[in-house]
């Protein structure tokens, strides 16, 4: 099939590459000429494990193309995916201008039947708006489908190739047939394609992200309670996660959820609810808990340093909002850095992939270490904000030799408390009884 993907960010690039991998001719369109130039010359623009190999193969075998021209990109295409940004506007609602502007442009240039697919995360009612935007100037028949994406950064290729489910929202039989054929190679493992109406598909996406965010905030509150009552959140997590009705996943407490999606999507669903004259009480609490959780370690750090961080120097491991990505959008580490600097401290940072992105945002207010161990030089304590594998089994002798105080503040519960006690660390984490020197 010939398909077009408009927007070659995270979702667009994964979507385009994976559809090319299953034998389709894919043209990706982006307004960012620099990005298109890089991608056309074989240079991948995002860090995503496993994607580069597929990208290079499909580019070489001429199933994957890039252009800045929408007209050129949609020529002969049967399906057009819109993988465009939907950032939060000033009031928290999803900004649909990228999607609607492209839709209006499509209406002017389409000359035969096409299926236009909302791949971006968009509020209920967007398929209708996209239909209206296209229809203003369009003379050919078309269908608009809501096909939300559930991939996670870091495991995006696997998530796309072996989805738990594919949600396709449209009542058009013609569009259902086209979409069913396109996704057939991905759902062979027995996971279903769920056909539904557009609005239900749109809400499914927000409900999924909001439910997962709720699970995390719930566990973060349980972690707070564990510390207050002397329980261990790891035990409680395993205790409840063994119940199939609850499930083991997404129960890890930490320093809050970040990334480009949970924060914006929870906020957008709250706003959609308000617009429908309904106050979504749980989600307001989920957002509140998450705001506080980002700075969960700060009082512990301040208390260790007797409320005076002025002149103290901290090593911070982990900047990305989660491991296996260079994405720093809403990363808790950025909030910790700001708070430490505001207290008059200085900070050295290390992350395996996200350093360049942080440098662009934070600049020279902090020191960028070459290595996780050089990051520790002259530091009064170590803070861990992201659970990269390389941080899980560190050389504790090197850590001890570099740190001025044997103190580690771990926002991702990487180490056993008992081991840290044996090693002689002042070790504080999230929801567990601390090892205090
Ligand atoms: N990042 C993720 O893991 C996931 C994101 N989503 C949703 O997918 C959508 C896209 O997200 P990302 O890929 O992360 O966004 P992104 O910000 O990484 O990429 C968007 C791309 O669209 C391009 N663009 C902007 N205006 C354009 C136009 N008029 N014509 C052509 N290209 C244009 C930008 O240059 C950029 O390359 C959002 O709605 C997001 O919520 C859904 C699931 C996962
Ligand atoms: O809509 C989206 O963009 C995507 O948002 C999330 O994916 P992603 O943001 O890539 O990352 P997650 O693995 O979900 O993690 C999100 C945040 O939650 C945190 N988290 C996750 C799990 C957990 O148990 N505890 C926890 O604090 C992570 O550290 C991270 O900051 C969803 O998992 C995807 O299904 C969805 O497609």
UniProtKB/TrEMBL annotation:
InterPro entries per the UniProt record, alphabetical: 6-PGluconate_DH-like_C_sf, NAD(P)-bd_dom_sf, UDP-Glc/GDP-Man, UDP-Glc/GDP-Man_DH_C, UDP-Glc/GDP-Man_DH_C_sf, UDP-Glc/GDP-Man_DH_dimer, UDP-Glc/GDP-Man_DH_N, UDPglc_DH_bac
Enzyme class: oxidoreductase
Binding site for substrate: 150-153, 205, 250-254, 258, 322
Domain UDP-glucose/GDP-mannose dehydrogenase C-terminal, first and last residues per copy: 315-417
Keyword terms, alphabetized: NAD, Oxidoreductase
Family: Belongs to the UDP-glucose/GDP-mannose dehydrogenase family.
Name the record gives this protein: UDP-glucose 6-dehydrogenase
Species this chain originates from: Chitinophaga ginsengisegetis
């Amino acid at each position: 099939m010939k398909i077009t993907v408009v927007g070659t960010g995270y979702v667009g690039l994964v979507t385009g590459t994976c559809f090319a991998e299953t034998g389709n001719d894919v043209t990706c369109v982006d307004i960012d000429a620099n990005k298109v130039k890089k991608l056309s010359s074989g240079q991948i623009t995002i860090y995503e494990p496993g994607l580069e190999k597929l990208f290079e193969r499909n580019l070489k075998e001429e199933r994957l193309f890039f252009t800045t021209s929408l007209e050129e990109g949609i020529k002969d295409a049967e399906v057009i995916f819109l993988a465009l940004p939907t950032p939060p506007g000033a009031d928290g609602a999803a900004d649909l201008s990228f999607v609607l502007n492209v839709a209006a442009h499509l209406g002017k240039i389409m000359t035969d039947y096409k299926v236009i697919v909302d791949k971006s995360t968009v509020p209920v009612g967007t398929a209708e708006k996209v239909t209206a935007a296209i229809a203003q100037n369009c003379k050919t028949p078309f269908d608009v489908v809501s096909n939300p994406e559930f991939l996670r950064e870091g495991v995006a290729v696997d998530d796309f190739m072996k989805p738990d489910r594919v949600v396709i929202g449209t009542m058009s039989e013609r569009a259902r047939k086209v979409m069913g054929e396109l996704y057939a190679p991905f759902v062979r493992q027995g996971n279903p394609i769920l056909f539904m109406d557009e609005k239900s598909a749109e809400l499914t996406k927000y409900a999924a992200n909001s439910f997962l965010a709720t699970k995390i905030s719930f566990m973060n509150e349980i972690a707070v309670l564990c510390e207050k009552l002397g329980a261990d959140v790891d035990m409680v997590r395993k205790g409840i996660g063994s119940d199939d009705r609850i499930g083991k996943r997404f129960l890890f407490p930490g320093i809050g959820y970040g990334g480009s999606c949970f924060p914006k999507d929870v906020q957008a669903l709250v706003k959609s609810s308000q617009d429908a004259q309904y106050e979504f009480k749980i989600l307001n609490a989920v957002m509140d808990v998450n705001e506080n959780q980002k700075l969960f370690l700060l009082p512990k750090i301040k208390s260790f340093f007797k409320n005076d961080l002025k002149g103290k120097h901290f090593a911070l491991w982990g900047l990305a909002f989660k491991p296996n990505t260079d994405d720093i959008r809403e990363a808790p580490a950025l909030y910790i850095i700001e708070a430490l600097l505001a207290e008059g401290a200085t900070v050295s940072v290390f992350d395996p992939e996200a350093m360049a992105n942080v440098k662009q945002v934070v600049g020279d207010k902090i020191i960028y270490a070459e290595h996780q161990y050089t990051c520790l030089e002259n530091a009064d304590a170590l803070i861990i904000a992201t659970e990269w594998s390389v941080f899980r089994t560190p050389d504790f002798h090197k850590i001890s030799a570099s740190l001025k105080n044997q103190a580690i503040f771990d926002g991702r519960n990487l180490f056993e408390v008992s081991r840290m006690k044996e090693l002689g660390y002042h070790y504080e984490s999230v929801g567990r009884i601390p090892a205090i020197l």
